[in-house]
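Contributing new records

If you add data, match the layout below exactly. Sequence lines come first and carry their own label; structure lines follow with theirs. Keep one chain per record. Anything else will be rejected by the validation script.
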Amino acid sequence: MTGASGLAGAAASTAELAAALAEGRPCFDGVEYVEGIGEVPVGRVDVTAATGKLNPSRARRMDPLSRLATAAVADLYARHGTPSRAEAEATGIVFATGYGPVTSVLRFHEGVLRQGITGANPSLFANTVVNAAAGHVAMLHRYRGYTATIANGGTSSILALQLAARVIARGAAERIMVVVADEFPEQALATQARLPGYARSARVAPGGRTGMVLSEGAAAILLESEEAAAARSADVLARVAGFGAAGEPAGIGRIGRDGGAWARALRAAMAEAGASPEGIGTVVSAASGYGLVDLAQARALELAGLADSPVVAPKAHLGETYGSAGALGLVAALSGAAPHGRLLLSSFAYGGSYAAAVFDTVS
């Protein structure tokens, strides 16, 4: 891994995200009114400001999800350097999202509901497909390599990193930009705020926060082969060690309470990395303050032999970013939330999907 960036809520860059973590303040500083609920906290990214240097004509063709993804890649290049044209054209992209282009889908369907088939706006339709963001980022940065899109809820980040690493390992690409993003328009917030685990306050209390807070976010992770990184004298931030995934038929909007399937994903990642529980330096947790999820993960960690491992919970300050959460957890760890060493990333998706990854950070 030779590049990493992330933004979440009010933290519109990796530097702002790292500062928030260091100061222990939440990135979800906004409050919005939800009918029937009242005011609830939420994290909003100012995509206009985050993509302020983007050509206006190109920006107009992008939906909010694509602009979030674009902002993450721009921040990565600002931090780690812009590639040459030849390097860019040899770069692939794996885009991941938990929920996809929600704003575009809603706007397109609103026109159809109001006016029937004549209300189907073709200019909106292009951005309703889940891989539209991958296309926008690839065209903007002249990527000509391997391209894929993954959408699997909260495990999307880790599954995208796994796919990219596998493609590079088999020699099908030398460099892949993994980009993840999720946006939450007011309709999505209204749905999530009705969950019993949604927070009513953004306050981060000692020992953790009670309740989940939705937060928009995006991250970019650049993976490349050892040979490609060495050829351009790139600084190595971390090395991929192993991945694991597991699933169970938990049902729509549910996860397994016993932590059994989640533990299988954690053990599989450690097994592929050749790591014992004692060899894990830090677990980057998926805990968000939602008791149902946090308790299931605690049981999974216990079953996987990780009950006594050091744990960091980035969502306590970044918010619940769903599809972006795994990658943002990695960015947070690299930004000082965890000491250097072997990291175990933990993630889940409602419905019963779990994914984990092991990375060896480089000091």
